[in-house]
Design goal:
This protein is an alpha/beta fold. The protein is built from 7 helices and 8 strands.
Length: 242
């Protein structure tokens, strides 16, 4: 296994964005727009997997969650509000410092750590890693590290850009070109198609349960869709023992 999944230049880039991470109009504005879409998907998958009451405000009560590449907590905080005992890990000490301060200010107890998931111990009922795999050294080894942190019967949820001309146009040419996403955030050569993702998941001992797209339109903005050309979410579980 690779010694680390962290690319130092990536950690440095996101560390520079730490100060205004929670500003919905700041450098991370696109993540703020994306977050409600991702949360809807995650809640749906949680309800299906654990057969939760869809009206419950705390479907993750009694469960543990790990958010890998957590940034300053845009996902970790909602997971805590859904009842989970949450651990968040990120390569950037700067964003972890902001995450800790924001959680404290909102009265949430979240275990934030700066470091690499490959150095983490323990297992978690829910493991999330959104818009992260396209920034790591080795996606295959990264998925194996996530699988090692997933408890039996647990749920893994990922999101990442698709490796299409449409995603390159929208995310790099348009979004980065117009300053909606900081320039240099994405490297198209590291984008992964759903087909390739399923292979990587299988190699990591994971079974893909669901793939759903995140699409964009002028009338609806970002939304869940059968169209996976731009970005997509994946749900997986550990391959059941034979």
């Amino acid at each position: 296994m690779a010694q680390t999944s962290i690319l130092p230049e990536e950690a440095e880039l996101f560390g520079k964005l730490a100060a205004d991470w929670w500003d919905p109009d700041g450098a991370s504005a696109m993540l703020h727009k994306l977050n409600p879409v991702r949360l809807k998907y995650i809640r749906d998958q949680i309800d299906q997997h654990w057969q939760c009451d869809e009206c419950s405000r705390t479907p993750l009560a009694g469960k543990t969650a790990l958010d890998v590449g957590c940034g300053a907590g845009l996902l970790a905080e909602p997971l805590a509000r859904l009842g989970a005992t949450v651990t968040g890990i990120d390569a950037s000490p700067e964003v972890i410092a902001v995450a800790r301060d924001h959680a404290a200010a909102t009265g949430l107890a979240i275990d934030y750590r700066a470091g690499d998931v490959q150095d983490l111990e323990g297992q978690f009922d829910l493991v999330t890693s959104l818009e992260v795999i396209e920034h790591v050294v080795d996606p295959a080894q990264f998925l194996k590290a996530l699988a090692a942190r997933l408890a039996p019967g647990g749920l893994l949820i990922l999101s990442t850009p698709n490796a299409t001309g449409w995603s390159k146009l929208m995310m790099i040419t348009v979004a980065e070109g117009l300053g909606q996403i900081p320039k240099g955030t994405h490297d198209f050569d590291k984008f992964i198609s759903p087909e390739q993702m399923k292979v990587l998941l299988a190699d990591a001992g994971l079974q893909c349960l669901d793939v759903e797209g995140i699409a964009w339109s002028p009338t609806r903005g970002l939304h869940l869709s059968d169209d996976v050309r731009l970005n997509y979410l994946v749900t997986a579980i550990l391959v059941p023992p034979q």
